[in-house]
Amino acid sequence: MKKALTVAEIAQITQSQVTSKTDVTISRLCALEDACEGGICYLTSIDKPELLKNLKASALIVPEEAQNKELPFSGALLYAKNPEWAFILLMKYVDAQRQKHTPGIHPTAVISPNAKLGQNVCVGAYTVIEDGVTVGDNTVIFPQCYIGKDVSIGKNCYLYPQVVIREDCVLKDYVILQAGATIGSDGFGFTFHEGRHQKIPQIGNVVLGNDVEIQSNTCIDRAKLASTVIGDNTKIDNLVQVGHNVRVGQAAIFCAQVGIAGTTEIGNGVILAGQVGLAGHMKIGDRTQVGAQSGVIGDLPAGQTYFGYPAMPQKEAFKQLAILRKLPDMYKDFKNLKKEIEETKKLSFWGKLKKLLGR
């Protein structure tokens, strides 16, 4: 923390209640396992109050239902409806006090005279901004970024180092692009003609909605025609590939190494866990969840959870996995049964009858 806070100040920031020790000074945010003097941490439940006996933190945010209970903690207690969210509010406050970038426009930045920059825009060293670019107020562009011709960037956006935004793409407000993200590369479009793969021009763009975050080294390809669209409040993890003409709804979550082939439509609130692969030209319904390393080869209806390859309803996939684990024993039983049948075939009629009668 850049500046120490009193428990009373923290209570205001976190919308929490505090009844005593309001003048205790806090200088550090910490996890429970790293708690120390001068630190504050949080607890989402008080099922095991004995864990607090040796907690070294100076303050602790706990659920508001703990207000009338005796807890074995000697520091200051803050009571919140949602302790985790209260702690996140404190993290947001502390993060906002940190200076992550150099204000102003660095002299080594190359900015077209035809670009339009809003008020309080920051541009880092060796960044290139081409003709026709517009950048909204309070947007921060870190060093070594490339902004192609006629790109539109909204207000309060953050573009971290080595971000690339190709020509004609659109970022709305409050977009965050982590280091190395690439927006608007050519879609992977080719046609086989006259004995070779011929490139299909990708003349569309990418549109990122409000409050979208794209993390490091993720690539979102421009559309063949029209737009590849990422809806408002969608969050995309590191190393994700989004193909051309994909359309994603609002508040979706894609975890690391997800791969989405072109012209796929993904609804609102969809969650794709790590390394999920989606074949192209399909529709994924709203609020659908797909488990890690699953392969989706067809449309999925809304509101269900899928897993496996090919992806199927999770309950069915788990049932198949449970059976699969029994396969070695089942195979052993099958071999024994087969051997017994072969031996029985070699017996005479009377031998078979004796075996049947157990004699």
Gist of the model:
By secondary structure, the protein is of the alpha/beta class.
Q: In the CATH hierarchy, what is the architecture of the largest domain at level 2?
A: 3 Solenoid
Largest sheet: 11 strands, mixed
Q: How many independent structural domains?
A: 3
Number of helices: 5
Widest sheet: strand ordering: 10-13-16-19-24-27-30-33-36-38-39
Shape: flat
Helix content: 10-25%
| Beta-strand content | 25-35%
User: Whole-number average pLDDT?
Assistant: 93
CATH H-level superfamily of the largest domain = Hexapeptide repeat proteins
Low-pLDDT runs of 5+ residues are none
Structural class: alpha/beta
| Overall strand count | 39
Query: What distance lies between the first and last C-alpha atoms, to the nearest angstrom?
Result: 86 Å
Describe the structure.
The protein is α/β, with parallel strands linked by helices. The protein has three domains: 5-97, 3-Layer(aba) Sandwich (Udp-n-acetylmuramoylalanyl-d-glutamate--2,6- Diaminopimelate Ligase, Chain: A, domain 1), CATH 3.40.1390; 163-315, UDP N-Acetylglucosamine Acyltransferase, domain 1, CATH 2.160.10.10; 327-357, no CATH class. Helix content is 18%, strand content 27%. The protein has five helices and 39 strands. The strands form six sheets. It has an eleven-stranded mixed sheet with strand order 10-13-16-19-24-27-30-33-36-38-39, with helices on one face.
